[in-house]
Amino acid sequence: MQIEEWRILENFPFTSENKRMGIVLQHTQLNKIMFYVKGADVIMIDKVSSKQRSICQEMCENLATEGLRTLVIT
Fold this sequence. Notes:
Blueprint lengths: L5 E7 L7 E8 L5 E7 L1 H4 L5 H16 L6 E2 L1
Antiparallel strand pairs: 1-2, 2-3, 3-4
């Protein structure tokens, strides 16, 4: 198992206005920067790539019919 080390560059906390939260991370060895954002499916669906949008929406709807809540991370 290889342990990776990431540094938090910025944190965007959840707000009721945006209905999502995000974080910017930097891989300490590779200097790679990643931005993760998560939120409710109805808010995040526009952030999903157009190629995957329909399958993401379908999966979220299927889970909702079973009474499950979903969280989309991009």
